[in-house]
Amino acid sequence: MIQLILNAATAMAQATEVAPAKSPSLVEMLAMPVGFLFIMYFLIIRPQQKKAKEHADLLTNLKAGDEVVTSGGIIGKVRAVAESFVTIEVANNTAIKVMKSNVSGLTKQPTAKDAVKA
After folding, report:
1. Residue 3 domain-assigned (yes or no)
2. pLDDT 10s digit of each residue in the chain, 118 long?
3. CA 10, 14, 15: angle at the middle one, nearest 5?
4. 99 neighbors 88 (Cβ within 8 angstroms)
5. CATH of the domain at 85
6. pLDDT of residue 27
7. What's the domain range around 72?
8. Cα 37 from chain centroid (whole Å)
9. Which of 4, 48, 79, 83 could bridge 87 with an S-S bond, Cβ 3.0-4.6 Å?
10. What is the DSSP letter of 42?
């Protein structure tokens, strides 16, 4: 009887032995992080760089007479452009001086098509 129990225990021990786990190769380990970096570059970093370049181009091409909007929401016409500052006329005989980097964009200039629609 004891011999039968020992044989059964031995058989169970041999059956439950698991083969050692195969360690992943270097390519398998690096595939996921490289994939995430690739996705992050094209979904986050590249569009942000493109937008920053467009804003820098806008600031370098500012000239008197352009109608702009600031980051604070103030709309006015550019009266003068200096190295770091822009003077914006917001009303008759009312001008403010703002940093060039605070100009967020040009306001949409009405075209002939827009005038016909109105």
Report:
1. no
2. 777 777 777 776 665 556 677 788 888 889 999 999 999 999 999 999 999 999 999 999 999 999 999 999 999 999 999 999 999 999 999 999 999 999 999 997 655 565 555 5
3. 115
4. no
5. 2.30.30.60
6. 86
7. 63-108
8. 13
9. 79
10. I
- How many structural domains is the chain composed of? 1
Instruction: Kindly state whether residue 47 falls inside one of the protein's structural domains.
Output: no
Whole-angstrom Cα distance, residue 87 to residue 79? Answer: 5
Which token pair is 67? 């109608």
100 assigned to some structural domain: yes
The torsion region of residue 63 among left (phi > 0), alpha (psi -120 to 50) and beta comes to: beta
Whether 67 maps to a domain, the answer reads yes
Residue with tokens 């917001």: 90
